[in-house]
């Protein structure tokens, strides 16, 4: 029998890597960036935790978290509205004249230690929200316990580009699976074992690490724990083999969305036994008009399509009017493409209006972003 | 302690809906899917919430499993309330014995103690048989203004259809002076929509009297309304002129779905000021494949479409494989249409699988004898094997 997952606390960092996608995270956390037609980034980790039987999850926020608050609500869609525990938003906690804005993960955790202690959980799982992933945390816990590790870090071995490794840690893993060395934020192309920033450890270990290191003015989990203590602690690498995408800039965001058009990817990300939950808006089904033509696209409820759509992701409530043409684009919630308009290689944020007959076309290698509420005339 | 409520709704959801045949073999009629992501009961439930009625008793009896599961704690309709909310009310055993619900009036009678707990002034009686958007608060306002004991919502129907309904006769001011249940030769076109508002004291009195009458059939249309009229109680007809569709037969259910695909739809499901809520699973948006052709259709989250879909309503989680053709059809949640299969002028039940190159239904223009044509129906959880065919008008409730 697997470990009792109600004794595992989840901690999500809503703002880590906000700077990676300045366009999309200008007015929201990376956790609340819309993804895949109806989801937001936080849905993936939150659903994974809930589906794995975890009943206590804290989300650490730093700034711009109104959209996240609105999305999470009572946390019922993720089955995390619980009498005991459930979802807790951990907003910056100011002390004395300090604004409470933290400098690193350890600093952020240090202001949440009373929450962490109060949950009484034996284990804790830490994760960022820049991943599109559907991990089975039950399996992660079992592997962690069996390996007798102090910390287990989820990673993936692949050939990466410089851009992909610029804001990431990479591991040198020994034959037994132990992490022997860690490089942090070094842009190095090639075959690497990249840290996915999902960690499991005993809650007591996390608390002592945070207390010890923060008192020394050390705030970085990657540098001060993984790199600094990999000789001292048994850090075990857990190679993740399922589908995942990491969002590290607008282009990777674009391609991660487009990856869902491949049915094989989609079926690996959203499983019948481990669905991805999100806040619902009670939209009617999508409606296709008399002259519509839609191929190779993902379309959410509430869309009304009367034009042509190819290789695109349409979030809920998008309208594509007559004779409009949408190609290789991501149109977020309630975007309107006017009649006769042409949109190609574009990412529109929520409520963007492309006026009748307007043409907005970017190069295929460089998707163009149009900010929330913009009216393009 | 229960908070007093001005108005409580009682939704009669126990009917078998026998004229939907295979589609109601395992589910109660109010739980029959409609419009891609809804079930029929979403309409009265959403109407209640949007009208400000937050206490709804749902009376179930026939095949309640799917319905109970679907309603859950009512959260999807914002009916998970501290005071009130949605309550499922099946028949129950008492010290004096156990009794099934015998007629609509008896079903409400058996739940008088539920209503009493909220001490309401008014009770709305609804059914789970119709597709419509209606503000019950306006009808209640009318009821109060007229000082009525009972107000019945009515709609004008074509005279040739009037014999299917309970027909009202009303004066200019709306006061009802006669009522005939399903008249053979109708003389009025004011049809009862099966929506009643009663002043509760009057309702309770008449229900108790009806219950004590051993001859009575314990039905609103047959007993309660005629008894009110006989005693000269103030009964008023409230005219409704919006979209209202009975979906109690295969043809009307198919029609009502097809009407959603018209260019000017009478029932606007995209109107955000009167949303119709439904209890949805958390599927991803639907995916349209490279070979797909979709026109004049509605498609719901969780679908995977790589075939041709024309003039059809596709519910959640449906798969239409490459080379399959679906036209003028309604596919219920989870249905699968395999490669090369054709589904036309048909309704395919939940999770049923239409095998490769199978053929379900036919276009009316291809049938010489028009009497042989009709909508083909495949029931729930069935398999139509590869290459098999389901004739137009056929209704299958076993795999073939």
Overview of the molecule:
The complex is a heterodimer of chains A (377) and B (400). Chain A has helices at 41-51, 66-72, 105-110, 113-119, 137-147, 162-165, 203-215, 221-227, 250-259, 263-269, and strands at residues 8-13, 34-35, 39-40, 56-60, 86-90, 123-128, 131-133, 151-160, 169-173, 179-184, 190-202, 235-239, 244-246, 286-288, 293-295, 297-299, 304-305, 308-310, 313-314, 319-320, 325-327, 330-331, 336-337, 342-344, 346-348, 353-354, 359-361, 368-370, 375-376. Chain A is an alpha/beta fold. In chain A, the strands form 6 sheets. In chain A, strands 1, 4, 5, 6, 8, 9, 10, 11 and 12 form a 9-stranded mixed sheet that branches. The model of chain A has no long low-confidence stretch (mean pLDDT 92). Chain B is an alpha/beta fold and 400 residues long. Chain B contains 8 helices and 33 strands. In chain B, strand 6 (93-94) and strand 7 form a beta hairpin. Chain B is globular and about 65 Å long. The N and C termini of chain B lie far apart (55 Å). Chain A binds chain B through residues 36-39, 47, 76-77, 260-261, 263, 266, 270, 275-278, 280, 282-302, 304, 313-316, and chain B through 35-37, 75, 261, 263, 269-270, 275-278, 280-301, 304, 309, 313-315. Strand 16 of chain A pairs antiparallel with strand 16 of chain B, so a sheet runs across the interface.
Describe how the helices and strands are arranged.
The complex is a heterodimer of chains A (377) and B (400).
Chain A: E1 8-13, E2 34-35, E3 39-40, H1 41-51, E4 56-60, H2 66-72, E5 86-90, H3 105-110, H4 113-119, E6 123-128, E7 131-133, H5 137-147, E8 151-160, H6 162-165, E9 169-173, E10 179-184, E11 190-202, H7 203-215, H8 221-227, E12 235-239, E13 244-246, H9 250-259, H10 263-269, E14 286-288, E15 293-295, E16 297-299, E17 304-305, E18 308-310, E19 313-314, E20 319-320, E21 325-327, E22 330-331, E23 336-337, E24 342-344, E25 346-348, E26 353-354, E27 359-361, E28 368-370, E29 375-376
Chain B: E1 7-12, E2 33-34, E3 38-39, H1 42-50, E4 55-59, H2 65-71, E5 85-89, E6 93-94, E7 97-98, H3 104-109, H4 112-116, E8 122-127, E9 130-132, H5 136-146, E10 150-156, E11 166-170, E12 176-181, E13 190-199, H6 200-212, H7 220-230, E14 235-239, E15 244-246, H8 250-259, E16 286-288, E17 293-295, E18 297-299, E19 304-305, E20 308-310, E21 313-314, E22 319-320, E23 325-327, E24 330-331, E25 336-337, E26 342-344, E27 346-348, E28 353-354, E29 359-360, E30 376-378, E31 383-384, E32 389-390, E33 395-396
Parallel strand pairs in B: 1-4, 1-8, 4-5, 10-14, 16-19, 17-20, 18-21, 19-22, 20-23, 21-24, 22-25, 23-26, 24-27, 25-28, 26-29, 27-30, 28-31, 29-32, 30-33
Antiparallel strand pairs in B: 2-3, 6-7, 8-13, 9-15, 10-13, 11-12, 11-13
């Amino acid at each position: 029998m697997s470990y009792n997952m109600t004794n595992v606390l989840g901690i999500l960092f809503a703002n880590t890597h906000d700077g990676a996608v300045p366009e999309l995270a200008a007015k929201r956390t990376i956790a609340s960036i819309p993804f895949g037609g109806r989801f937001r980034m936080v849905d993936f980790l939150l659903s994974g935790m809930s589906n794995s039987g975890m009943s206590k999850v804290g989300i650490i926020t730093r700034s711009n978290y109104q959209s996240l608050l609105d999305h999470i609500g009572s946390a019922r869609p993720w089955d995390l509205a619980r009498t005991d525990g459930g979802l807790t938003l951990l907003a910056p906690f100011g002390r004395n004249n300090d604004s409470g804005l933290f400098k690193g993960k350890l600093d952020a955790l240090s202001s949440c230690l009373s929450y962490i202690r109060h949950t009484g959980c034996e284990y804790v799982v830490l994760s960022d929200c820049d991943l599109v992933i559907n991990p089975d945390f039950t399996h992660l816990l079992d592997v962690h316990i069996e390996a007798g590790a102090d910390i287990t870090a989820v990673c993936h071995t692949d050939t990466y580009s410089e851009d992909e490794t610029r804001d990431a840690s990479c591991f040198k893993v020994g034959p037994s699976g132990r992490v022997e060395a860690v490089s942090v934020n070094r842009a190095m192309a090639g075959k690497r074992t990249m840290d996915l920033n999902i960690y499991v450890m005993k809650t007591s270990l996390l608390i002592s690490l945070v207390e010890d290191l923060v008192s020394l003015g050390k705030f970085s989990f990657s540098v001060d724990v993984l790199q600094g203590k990999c000789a001292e602690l048994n850090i075990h690498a857990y190679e993740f083999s399922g589908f995942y995408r990491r969002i590290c800039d607008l282009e990777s965001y674009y391609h991660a969305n487009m990856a869902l058009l491949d049915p094989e990817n989609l079926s690996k990300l959203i499983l019948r036994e481990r669905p991805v939950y999100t806040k619902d808006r009670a939209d009617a089904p999508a409606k296709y008009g008399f002259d519509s033509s839609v191929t190779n696209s993902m379309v959410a409820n509430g869309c009304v399509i009367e034009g042509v759509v190819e290789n695109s992701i349409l979030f809920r409530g998008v309208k594509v009017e007559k004779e409009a043409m949408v190609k290789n684009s991501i149109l977020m919630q309630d975007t309107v493409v006017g009649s006769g308009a042409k949109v190609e290689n574009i990412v529109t944020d929520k409520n963007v209006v492309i006026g009748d007959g307007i043409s907005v076309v970017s190069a295929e290698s460089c998707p163009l972003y149009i900010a929330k509420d913009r009216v393009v005339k | 302690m229960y908070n007093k409520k001005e108005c409580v709704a009682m939704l009669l959801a126990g009917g078998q809906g026998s004229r939907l045949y295979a589609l109601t073999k395992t589910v109660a009629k109010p739980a029959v899917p409609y419009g891609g992501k809804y079930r029929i009961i979403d309409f009265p439930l959403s109407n209640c919430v949007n009208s400000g009625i937050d206490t709804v008793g749902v009376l179930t009896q026939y095949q309640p499993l799917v319905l109970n599961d679907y309603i859950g704690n009512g959260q999807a309709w914002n009916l998970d309330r501290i005071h009130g909310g949605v309550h499922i009310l099946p028949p129950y055993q008492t010290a004096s014995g156990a009794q099934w619900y015998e007629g609509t009036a008896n079903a409400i009678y058996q739940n008088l103690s539920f209503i009493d707990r909220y001490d309401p002034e008014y009770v709305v009686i609804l059914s789970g048989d119709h597709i419509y958007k209606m503000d019950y608060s306006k009808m209640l306002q009318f009821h109060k203004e007229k000082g009525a004991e009972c107000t019945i919502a009515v709609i004008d129907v074509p005279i040739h259809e009037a014999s299917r309904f309970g027909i009202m006769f009303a004066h200019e001011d709306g006061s009802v002076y006669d009522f005939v249940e399903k008249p053979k030769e109708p003389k009025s076109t004011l049809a009862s929509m099966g929506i009643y508002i009663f002043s509760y004291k009057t309702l309770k009195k008449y229900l108790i009297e009806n219950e004590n009458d051993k001859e009575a059939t314990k039905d609103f249309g047959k007993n309660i309304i005629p008894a009110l009229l006989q005693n000269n109680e103030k009964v008023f007809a409230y005219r409704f002129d919006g979209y209202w569709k009975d979906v109690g037969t295969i043809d009307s259910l198919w029609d009502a779905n097809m009407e959603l695909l018209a260019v000017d739809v009478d029932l606007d499901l995209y109107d955000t000021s009167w949303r119709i809520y439904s209890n949805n699973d958390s599927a991803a948006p639907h995916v349209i494949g490279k070979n797909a052709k979709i026109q004049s259709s509605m498609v719901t989250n969780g679908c995977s479409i790589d075939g041709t879909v024309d003039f059809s309503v596709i519910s959640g989680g449906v798969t239409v494989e490459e080379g399959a053709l679906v036209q003028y059809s309604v596919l219920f949640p989870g249905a699968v249409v395999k490669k090369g299969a054709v589904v036309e002028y048909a309704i395919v039940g939940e999770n049923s699988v239409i095998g490769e190159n199978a053929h379900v239904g036919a276009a009316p223009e291809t049938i010489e004898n028009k009497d042989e044509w009709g909508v083909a129906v495949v029931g729930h959880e069935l398999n139509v094997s590869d290459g098999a065919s389901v004739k137009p008008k056929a209704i299958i409730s076993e795999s073939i």
